[in-house]
Amino acid sequence: MDGQAPRAGSREQGRMLGVLRDEGALSRVALGERLELPRARLAAELGRLIDDGLVEVGGPAASRGGRRSTLVHLADDLRVIGIDVGATSITAAVTDGRCEVLASASEECDVRLGPVEVLRRARELAARTAARAPGRLIGAGIGLPGPVSFRDGMPVAPPIMPGWDRYPVRDELASALGCPVTVDNDVNVMALGERHAGVARSLDDLIFVKVGTGIGCGIVLGGRVYRGVAGTAGDIGHVRLDDFGPPCACGEVGCLEAYFGGAALARDGLTLARTGRSPVLAETLAATGSLTARDVGTAAASGDFAAASLVREGGRRLGQVVASLVSFLNPGMVVIGGGVSRLGHALLAEVRSAVYRRSLPLATGNLPIVLSELGDDAGVIGAAWSATERAFMSPA
Amino acid sequence: MDGQAPRAGSREQGRMLGVLRDEGALSRVALGERLELPRARLAAELGRLIDDGLVEVGGPAASRGGRRSTLVHLADDLRVIGIDVGATSITAAVTDGRCEVLASASEECDVRLGPVEVLRRARELAARTAARAPGRLIGAGIGLPGPVSFRDGMPVAPPIMPGWDRYPVRDELASALGCPVTVDNDVNVMALGERHAGVARSLDDLIFVKVGTGIGCGIVLGGRVYRGVAGTAGDIGHVRLDDFGPPCACGEVGCLEAYFGGAALARDGLTLARTGRSPVLAETLAATGSLTARDVGTAAASGDFAAASLVREGGRRLGQVVASLVSFLNPGMVVIGGGVSRLGHALLAEVRSAVYRRSLPLATGNLPIVLSELGDDAGVIGAAWSATERAFMSPA
């Protein structure tokens, strides 16, 4: 590598790289059909990509029968970094050009430490991970737990990220890593991950609902992330359910997040433990001195009645909000992910029941409401995918 | 006219016609700049449009100074029909190629009479209106008060339109009128009307909320109507606000429409009149024997306390739903229209207060929440616009 990340040289080359990323090895004939390019043009553009080392001839996939046709595929040594910064952890992965994870690692990290410290750790984690699968870096993507200006590559007024407001995340990472970088909201990249490689594969209209420390929603319409005019689309955590509800970390009251975010579940679990209404949680509290949302989920799964009721009640409220979303947007799929989604089928049952009861039958008729398939990998895969979009689609 | 409506012959010609529709007369130079077409290509495509009589040379608009440049504009005699079928009325308009209304007319008509009768009346009304501004018909658009399959040109399972389910509205009208026809949901065409010629002019992301007999919402994202996978996007009338709320015409309970649609306002107004809590409504009831939503609005505007409270309460509930929409979609503008919007600023104040209180500050920071500017014309203008899109953008 000569210090400059390899990139597509034209729009057609970018489209070719995108098709090879999404579909894997293809014959020259099939690639030409996908792109609707005349043979001579195809040969010229493809030749350039091969010369630049972005595409290789002879692929892992078998010919689909019939006459033999040379396969082409993305170069094996292309590498993309995907970073998912959560409220309390960082995950970094290195993928190949098709966004398949080759190596990944996670560590605890409080986003409130601020951008300098958190990005330093993220870079180190990414470097250690990348060293396990060496190759040529073509791009990196990062997801952050707050509103992001995608265009400017920086967070904008993020409620739970003190010190991050308008910090130049993209420019700093791009200069440190020596490749183009995309910065997006964590829920948006999760939605992209599930669409590229997960349960929502190839769907054009979907909603990804993340229930973790915070609650948010990634909206994919017509195959693209819909961000809204100020980049805040998908903010469902702070929809007010009750003017006299519990206080929320955002400073308001009665937000969905104040009922069903990670902190709310831990808080309500603590009440159940202290009042003795949940024997399982009381035991956990006595043993560890504190309770997390995960403890509530474990208690619910073990059959603890009070903890299970808490999950059902939260799922009902979440379902109420998701039902509105479904009525508004009539999506092709609702995917539920994030830490709290580990509560699994009890949660799903409540959400489904609320949506099917409250939304228009025509909108729910063919609507799958499913759990995330990629789990903790959704964010890093989506961030890597977003990075390839930039590397492939913005000609050098 | 030779029995065949004139249409664009190529994609570039379609784009030219679209620019001349949206911007009016332009110099050849300015048109070439808008389309980023090389001069020779521009001359050839424009020549074809002039030969076909779709575009004329020498226009009403003055040159913007500097050296003289020939103006071109859409032919003066192009005509488009826009039809807006509501629950209880039909409006038909004939417009020029720029979708400016040249003549329009309305009549009472119950959509429950079924498609044969309603479409017969719509055709007659359109023909009488078109006769007042003769010219060459290039297309017609119609909005219907229910879910529509835009692709198939027909209503699909519309709740308040018995007999209309999958009736081939587009094909029947196209054959009767001898021009291409588009069929869409009434709220979608209203949103397009406000975007083309009204308060939302040139905005790419907006929500149009119609409060009339029914309550619905047209969503424009990235400059295009977003319809959802089954065409039901924007259904906010049947978002359930309360599991134990009043019964709705759709068969469910507690829908927004059951609180604040035209029928709900009339029903609640009747209660106020009968119990004597509204002296104004009691008087109207005694005089006319019945009450409508409009009577409630008039009473509220005249200062009747009970009627005004009804409007405020409805506005609060509507605002609750609009706040969710704003949080989800982060639009650039919210436009409120339909019959009940005549309640005006009292209604607007309640909706604004709910949205600004409940949605994320970043999403409401630069968000205008305004009344429809085109009023009853929004639907016919939007339907005509949709018709020109088809006539211009689908080459013959």
UniProtKB/TrEMBL annotation, chains A, B:
Keywords: Kinase, Transferase. It holds the Pfam family ROK. One of its GO terms (molecular function) is kinase activity. The keyword Cytoplasm does not apply. SUPFAM superfamilies: Actin-like ATPase domain, Winged helix' DNA-binding domain. InterPro entries: ATPase_NBD (IPR043129), ROK (IPR000600), ROK_cs (IPR049874), WH-like_DNA-bd_sf (IPR036388), WH_DNA-bd_sf (IPR036390). The keyword Transferase applies. Belongs to the ROK (NagC/XylR) family. PANTHER family: GLUCOKINASE, ROK (REPRESSOR, ORF, KINASE) FAMILY. This is Sugar kinase.
